């Protein structure tokens, strides 16, 4: 079986930061691949396309990265393992093992949706190994530096009517209403973001998914932040292809953000 994650080691002088990209995977395990609508999984639309590429400058800054191998349609690494809802405002959100896309299309063929036993199997094989590896990496960094920042990197189409009737802001920082990270780290990101012309929101409409909430333990010197960004900022107008010019602007902003965060973490 292919490992459910890929590690990109920090280069040069390591810093206490770990970037996670849980939704850029596109693989489907051979034993369940034929359970899906083959046209849809040829290019699963809910993938956070190219996010791992967008952040590929990070190892040169001493930052370790972990990226998911399998599609979120196999199992969504940013959902509660017991399928507890992340929000209580009535919004539609896909399940731990999604059965439809963000646009409402069924992704499985008839009679092939996963039952509880199959969901438990996927938790064991794909979900918990990702979490366990993050735990291991964070513990190593915290042992070396005394503190650590976990950054969960995401993207979304600019307009997803099943989730929100309006277009999404360009950048949405999530910290579960200040519970997952020190205020100084939050302020560092927001100040850096607001130096741009991009539309920035904080904890609205997303305040961080399960990964951010699970790993954010500021009282234990373990901080977590989630960044959701609209794909239009680094892809073409149809949000299909990587746009080098647009991505270049975002990459420069992200580099500046991490430069500032590394200084702030060092001062905590």
Automatic annotation (TrEMBL):
InterPro entries listed in its UniProt record: N-FG_amidohydro (IPR007709)
Protein's name in the database: N-formylglutamate deformylase
Annotated source species: Fulvivirga kasyanovii
Top-level taxonomy: Bacteria, Pseudomonadati, Bacteroidota, Cytophagia, Cytophagales
């Amino acid at each position: 079986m292919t490992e459910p994650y890929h590690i990109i080691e920090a280069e040069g002088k390591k810093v206490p930061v770990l970037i996670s990209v849980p939704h850029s995977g596109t693989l489907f395990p051979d034993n369940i691949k034929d359970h899906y609508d083959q046209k849809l999984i040829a290019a699963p639309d809910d993938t956070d396309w190219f996010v791992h590429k967008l952040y590929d400058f990070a190892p040169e800054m001493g930052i370790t990265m972990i990226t998911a191998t399998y599609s979120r349609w196999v199992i969504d690494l940013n959902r509660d393992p017991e399928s507890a809802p992340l929000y209580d405002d009535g919004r539609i959100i896909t399940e731990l093992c999604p059965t439809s896309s963000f646009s409402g299309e069924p992704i499985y063929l008839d009679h092939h949706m996963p039952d509880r036993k199959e969901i438990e199997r996927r938790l064991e094989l794909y979900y918990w190994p990702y979490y366990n590896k993050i735990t291991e990496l964070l513990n190593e960094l915290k042992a070396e530096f005394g503190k650590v920042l976990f950054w969960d990197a995401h993207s979304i189409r600019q307009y997803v009517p099943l989730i929100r009737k309006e277009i999404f802001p360009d950048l949405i920082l999530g910290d579960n209403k200040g519970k997952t990270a020190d205020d100084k780290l939050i302020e560092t990101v927001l100040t850096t973001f607001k130096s741009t012309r991009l539309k920035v929101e904080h904890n609205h409409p997303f305040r961080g998914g399960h990964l951010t909430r699970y790993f954010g333990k500021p009282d234990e010197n373990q901080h977590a932040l989630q960044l959701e960004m609209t794909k239009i900022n680094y892809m073409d107008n149809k949000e299909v292809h990587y746009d080098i010019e647009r991505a270049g602007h975002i990459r420069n902003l992200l580099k500046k953000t991490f430069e500032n965060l590394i200084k702030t973490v060092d001062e905590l």
